């Protein structure tokens, strides 16, 4: 089997770690305007890789549970403050990219959480996080533009598969227990029941976007004239470069929102 084929299979492989990657990317499951429109399909999230996020070595301890809970409590408090103070909901709104301030806060804080769980001393910068969010949205938009499609059956099948992974009662490693706890906290701050969460439009849109990105990667890997992941990354860099030429990108200052 060629390395391209192995990579394509790996990118389609799902696991409990892949599930938390999707759940952490769903930042519109609050009451912000982003959660009140079906245009959330423009939002994107990581490919469904079993390497995202890399928390396989994190321990399930009282300390890590407290860190996870405090992070999601902080996110919920800041998002409530955004709503209650009537701040402008959209920090970026174009044909290709729609990002709310609440979404940005969620993504930044959860990325910081993953860094902390991995015991990394540095933190992702706001600029890096915003660039990542914009790039993912542009990637999904590009996939749609070149004719890649995703069916409701594919999305629902993926959601069902991941829900079964969450419900699996078999023995779990310490990192898997932590992953489940992260997912529980993620669902908790939405204000939805577990059943409502799994059947929400926001969850559907998040998985749909993930599949678009995965299919685009598969499309590139299948083209022998391209250079696999290098071509995928080059495409994303070019999409972002072109976007910056047309739109002003400003990283929000969260200092006042974080003063609680």
From TrEMBL:
<keyword id="KW-0732">Signal</keyword>
<protein>
    <recommendedName>
        <fullName>Lipoprotein</fullName>
    </recommendedName>
</protein>
<dbReference type="InterPro" id="IPR027304">
    <property type="entry name" value="Trigger_fact/SurA_dom_sf"/>
</dbReference>
<feature type="signal peptide">
    <location>
        <begin position="1"/>
        <end position="34"/>
    </location>
</feature>
